[in-house]
Amino acid sequence: MENSSKTKKMTGLGRGLGALLQDSEKINTPRSNSRVSAAEVVGSMSEIDVNLIEANPYQPRTKFDQEALQELADSIRVQGIIQPITVRQLSEDSYQLISGERRLQASRSLGLTSIPAYVRTANDQQMLEMALIENIQRENLNSIEIALSYQRLILECSLKQEELGVRVGKNRTTVNNYIRLLKLPPVIQAALRDNQISMGHARAIITINSDQSQLKIFNKIIEEGWSVRKVEEEVRKLGMMANIQTETKKQPTINQEIKALQFQLSSFFGAKVSVKSNEEHKGEIKIPFTSQDELNKILETLKFK
Fold it and tell me: What is the pTM of this model?
């Protein structure tokens, strides 16, 4: 483990995270005693017993690369923990992880009994926000995990897309592109999560309105190895076909008789009456009004008053 006799403030926590964590002006040297008082430990860096740290319930990552974890463990064995984890104190002998899940797992795999940690105060919403932002910026999350994290920040932390973009250093369009992925059929989301298709494939597929068509294109990607460009070409073709079909399904232009009737009714009621009719002579007549007086006039004309 690294141990320095000098006190210094640790920086480089990632864009947006430092402001959330509100680093203390005074950070003490690592302590070997995990049972220090809350007054001493909050805002400081201390050595915490790994058995006293419980998992973060807001951890967005659902899968960890075991090979990458082993590489991290090998690095820790040689270099020690370079970047402390961050926890919040629940009680005298209990802490909850805010960020640093991989470092904690790797340390436990090496049989380490303690780990350097920053101790912070945070409520549940701050916990969620800090964990999500830290993981989005520091971990190699897949596209679906990022999308889910963005969605949770918006829904559970009441952030607007513009605010979220500022927190994670992305523009609103990028944030929206990720969130839209969650509208894809589950099988396509799973394939994106498991790196069977790329973000480019998914962004092309999401522009198709029909789930059935999306799945058809997806199957072609898997079975025939379609490139992103090939998918984009097929999506354009589907779009052109959809436009043609829409044009053919449009109702015929209202005929002159309907236009004449519409004019007569508008004059009769003193309002812009709308008349619609199809080839089967089914339709509707709409008489709009914008005030109680206008409604009374229409009712009087109809002899209802």
Answer: 0.45
C-alpha–C-alpha distance, residues 201 and 230, integer Å = 9
Local confidence band at 156 (pLDDT 50, 70, 90 cut-offs): low
pLDDT at residue 165 tops 80: yes
State yes or no: is 101 an active-site residue: yes
> What is the Cα Rg of the chain in Å?
31
- The letter for the amino acid at 285 is I
User: Which one from 101, 134, 139, 234 is the annotated catalytic residue?
Assistant: 101
Class of domain 17-124: alpha beta
Q: How far apart are CA 104 and CA 113, in angstroms?
A: 11
SS3 153: helix
Pairing between strand 274-277 and 283-286?
A: antiparallel
Structure-token match 């802490």, residue found:
95
Three-state DSSP class for residue 160:
coil
Residue 223 scores a pLDDT above 90: yes
CB contact set of 223 (below 8 Å; sequence gap of 6+):
none
* Segments making up each domain of the chain, as ranges: 17-124, 256-301
